[in-house]
């Protein structure tokens, strides 16, 4: 085994007699940062942060000292790229009681902002003192702004382009409603070479029969397992709300239903209006959404849930069938996140699919294309297959 291989194994496995490569000062600092979180037994108590449990198994050692944890958060940002820092922070949240330390604004300023951190902060929202909540909003704002830069433009382009293609008229009422590209193609036979121009005899434009040509309802499960999906769905809801050609409503639920549509001007307000955790009553949420529907055939209802129903499952399936039968285009997303294969109720997923509601997980990068397909009234199940999305 080469020295570099021994070095990598040494950093991965910790201090083992079989591995004795020379570590430079940076490697030693990196090793100490890893040991503080993943060290073994008594040695972990010495190098880590006073773990109270002794074990021969590899265990966490970041215990209860806030100053040391703060230094550790700074160390891992110094030694590792952001993607690795996020993994280490996530492990610290899961293995330790680091959530309580996030209630301190000084601690919160030291972490690397990401979607998982936002989810944690939302779940702690009602426990935060006012000063910490101000800092938390700044952290959440930073993550939301980064996600908007990455996803908002694509979402707006996909949705407006789909609406333009789907909503045509031969009698546009205003000049700005004329689709010039399609008008030119439709009038090529009227080209006058001596004037090098086309005389458009048939105009093709965008129809505006109502203020909004499509109604979109995002119905989001805010149980703890759906945390990342809540973050992304809130962002997309705010982006959709900024597009005048669609009417967007955003509803979150656990065992209660909350309509956050009035907050859609700011996704940060939406996120702090949610309450992650608790039970799940999907049927109750769909009943509320059903009451919002004005024109069923022009309504897209996106249910984002793992489909674990805590309420009346029989009524849930009946209501889903009723929604589909009325003409509503209903899509069931088991997750809207980058977290990989979600855990979900396979029986309900199969039932939803059988009722005609395409049911699958979707990554945030693909969600704009999914909405474009839905707005164009494409077969979303076929679209999912074309994009190598596994349907359920």
Structure in a nutshell:
This protein has helices at residues 3-13, 25-38, 41-47, 66-79, 82-95, 98-101, 105-108, 115-123, 130-166, 180-186, 227-241, 267-272, 282-292, 313-325, 346-354, 367-375, 380-386, and strands at 168-169, 191-192, 197-198, 205-206, 214-221, 246-253, 257-259, 299-304, 329-336, 359-362.
Q: What can you see in these coordinates?
A:
With 392 residues, the chain is α/β, with parallel strands linked by helices. It contains 17 helices and ten strands. The strands form three sheets. It has a six-stranded mixed sheet, sandwiched between helices. A two-stranded antiparallel ribbon has the order 1-4. Helix 8 crosses helix 9 (130-166), helix 8 packs across helix 11 and helix 9 packs across helix 16 (367-375). The protein is globular, with a radius of gyration of 26 Å. The two termini are 46 Å apart.
Task: Throw out a few tags for this protein.
alpha/beta; six-stranded mixed β-sheet; two-stranded antiparallel sheet; 10 strands
Topology summary:
Layout: H1 3-13, H2 25-38, H3 41-47, H4 66-79, H5 82-95, H6 98-101, H7 105-108, H8 115-123, H9 130-166, E1 168-169, H10 180-186, E2 191-192, E3 197-198, E4 205-206, E5 214-221, H11 227-241, E6 246-253, E7 257-259, H12 267-272, H13 282-292, E8 299-304, H14 313-325, E9 329-336, H15 346-354, E10 359-362, H16 367-375, H17 380-386
Parallel strand pairs: 5-6, 5-8, 8-9, 9-10
Antiparallel strand pairs: 1-4, 2-3, 6-7
Helix pairs in contact: 2-4, 8-9, 8-11, 9-11, 9-16, 13-14
